[in-house]
Amino acid sequence: MPGGPSAPSASTEVAGVASDIGKRTPFQCPRVEAYVNVIRTASLFSADFERLFRSHGLSEATYNVLRILRGSKLADPAGLGEVTCQRIGEQMVSPVPDVTRLVDRLERQGLARRRRCERDRRVVYVSITPEGESLLDHLAPGVDDQHAAHCADMTEADLRRLSALLTAFRAGARSTRGVRPGQSNPNSKD
Amino acid sequence: MPGGPSAPSASTEVAGVASDIGKRTPFQCPRVEAYVNVIRTASLFSADFERLFRSHGLSEATYNVLRILRGSKLADPAGLGEVTCQRIGEQMVSPVPDVTRLVDRLERQGLARRRRCERDRRVVYVSITPEGESLLDHLAPGVDDQHAAHCADMTEADLRRLSALLTAFRAGARSTRGVRPGQSNPNSKD
DNA sequence: CGGCAACATATGTTTCAACAGATGTCGTTG
DNA sequence: CAACGACATCTGTTGAAACATATGTTGCCG
């Protein structure tokens, strides 16, 4: 949107967002066009998933937390796969400082449980419940379908190029906060 | 994030988001990786702009509305460049049903004004005030700088390819709502 | 003209994100 | 062990998004 409502400037002929929105002309500047394309794409896809999740009482954020919890459990088949709140915050796709409340909701819904660490009573371990796992299982087909639908027009090579470009693009973001190297904590499976 | 906390699966070596987050392994599936890259990139860039705008009492959404208003004014040098709420909603980068409240805030801040249409008293015309214009002018350098910083590592060709890929990607979104063909309403300038 | 559907905007309510600051805990230092 | 700073989580509050629904308006049909 910065630069959103923009200017006419023939020459640029990608014509993507331009026709999508009420907007008529391609953007003045490839920078702005790329930016708006990113925002708009994210917003559309997010909306699709939000709709899917909300019908099961989840938001995109709480779903994401659930995924993290399950990933952690699968990485630790012996135990419960407990993770600290802090770690959850780090692994979220879009960093959220307010993990407490996300976990609150999951706990209230019986999808996650908390446990205080005895050795360091500041930290709280969070883990997924069987109900949480079965909800994820129940959701899985819909999620896969939606990914498939989103990618209908994309080849695998396209997807890889897109990821590579976005990674480069993102390198310029200022708010690369919360990006500590982090130790390897392999959550297996997907 | 759907598919967010994912799996190991050597072979995919874009390694983008994987290292960005607390996450260690590339994603199982290029689809999911592309998706997460889009979300994450949008979220980082958005955060940068949010910060910039908020220091001047705007959100990304209200800034976007202001841009639309100014674009409309520049397209109509004779008049005030009035636009209906509906039209504003269509032109937003991420579609917002709740234009009323966005305009409420701008009006309260003296950055926009409303006027009822006499011929059809259902519609409300919105236009930018001089204060709104000068705020945009004041903000412009910062916005440009931020775009420049974001694109530091990208060539112009990269940006164009990225836009093209995203446009194709977005074609698969279900929520292509509010995307009426729309008549051409050339807001000139940027 | 009365009724009715389509419309444009406004309002109410619930839910969530964001920021600030509080609480309780640990480790260290003297 | 008292004091202090760093830390992890929690709480309080405010502001905005989401969704449904209400209000007021138009145009059409009979």
Keywords:
disordered N terminus, 6% strand, homodimer, mainly alpha, 3 strands, globular, 190 residues, Arc Repressor Mutant, subunit A, DNA-binding
3D architecture notes:
2 copies of one chain form a homodimer. The two termini of chain A are 34 Å apart. In chain A, helix 2 (30-54) packs across helix 6 and helix 3 (60-74) crosses helix 5. In chain A, strands 1-3-2 form a 3-stranded antiparallel β-sheet. Helices cover 52% and strands 6% of the residues of chain A. Chain A is mainly α. The first copy, chain A, has a domain at 19-147: Winged helix-like DNA-binding domain superfamily/Winged helix DNA-binding domain (Arc Repressor Mutant, subunit A). In chain A, strand 2 (112-116) and strand 3 (124-128) form a beta hairpin. Chains A and B meet through helix 1, helix 2, helix 3, helix 4 and helix 6 of A and helix 1, helix 2, helix 3, helix 4 and helix 6 of B. Chain A binds a DNA duplex (30 and 30 nucleotides) through helix 5.
